[in-house]
Amino acid sequence: MEFRQTRYNAANFKGDKMKSIKEVMLSRHSCRKFCSDKLNSELVREILDLARLSPSSCGLEPWRMMIISDPCELKELSVACNSQPQVAECSHAVILIARNDLRVGEAYLERTVRRRANTPQKYEAAMNYFRAKFAGLDDEALMNYATKQLYILAANIANIAEGFDVRSCIMTGFDAAALEKLCALEAKFRPAIVVALGHGEPSKYPHTRYELDEILISRGGSEKR
Ligand SMILES: Cc1cc2nc3c(=O)[nH]c(=O)nc-3n(C[C@H](O)[C@H](O)[C@H](O)COP(=O)(O)O)c2cc1C
């Protein structure tokens, strides 16, 4: 049995001129008006290469990402996304795809677990854990479990992009059947989130958000208004 580790090589990381997390959180807004210049594809790869380090439940990374950048394909994608214009006008759209082949016996689970369980005993223990964890879940429940992980990936893509002064829009406003048809993937894959990326003017308006003291709640507490 082969045990392999993959490690992100920080020495190769080119993005040393990124905004701080604080700057990112203060400046990121959903962009609905991208300008027509294309992003450098290497930069898009770098954004996704960092985002793939996102956490996921049990480290299963139940995702795939599809990049669409051809203007005709972006138009097609926009139609699937309820004709939202920012999809047709963005530079690159990243479709985040959940996968539900996570049961014991499925090649993906076994390959994924093997990366960390570096002895046969650890591997067997992990498989017993997953056998119990997923035994009661049907395909749809497993897909929902996987889809939750994609939201973390989406947030990280948007924030990392903003760190490079790249605008973004996270989207779930699409016709699911049309998006599935466009992606044309096997049943174990389901497109769940679209993230549009591109150049655009920085947003100058403040965030509309509740204050921290309003969203903090105590155990058994009711809302203070
Ligand atoms: C899960 C999710 C789905 C979203 N779907 C869409 C969408 O389909 N179209 C869109 O224009 N914005 C979409 N948004 C963006 C939200 O409208 C936006 O984040 C929210 O209004 C706050 O604005 P801000 O991102 O500019 O701070 C989505 C955001 C999230 C997190």
Question: How would you describe what is shown here?
Answer:
By secondary structure, this protein is of the alpha+beta class. The chain has one domain: NADH Oxidase (3-Layer(aba) Sandwich), CATH 3.40.109. The protein contains nine helices and four strands. It has helices spanning 21-27, 41-51, 71-80, 85-89, 107-116, 120-134, 139-163, 176-183, 212-215, and strands spanning 63-68, 92-99, 167-171, 189-198. It has a four-stranded antiparallel β-sheet, with helices on both faces. Helix 1 (21-27) crosses helix 7 (139-163), helix 2 crosses helix 7 (139-163) and helix 3 runs antiparallel to helix 8. The protein is globular. Residues 1-6 have low confidence and may be disordered. The structure holds flavin mononucleotide (FMN). Flavin mononucleotide is lined by residues 29-30, 32, 84, 169-173, 207. Belongs to the nitroreductase family. This is Nitroreductase family protein. Residues 27-199 form the Nitroreductase domain. One of its GO terms (molecular function) is oxidoreductase activity. It comes from Campylobacter gracilis RM3268.
CATH second-level architecture: 3-Layer(aba) Sandwich
Shape: globular
Q: What is the CATH C-level name?
A: Alpha Beta
Share of residues in strands: 5-15%
**Rg computed from alpha carbons, rounded to a whole number of angstroms:** 20 Å
Number of strands: 4
Q: What is the helix/strand order?
A: HHEHHEHHHEHEH
What is the count of DSSP helices, taking H or I runs of 4+ residues? 9
In round numbers, the mean pLDDT is 93
CATH topology: NADH Oxidase
InterPro entries: Nitroreductase, Nitroreductase-like
Family: Belongs to the nitroreductase family.
Domain Nitroreductase: 27-199
Protein name: Nitroreductase family protein
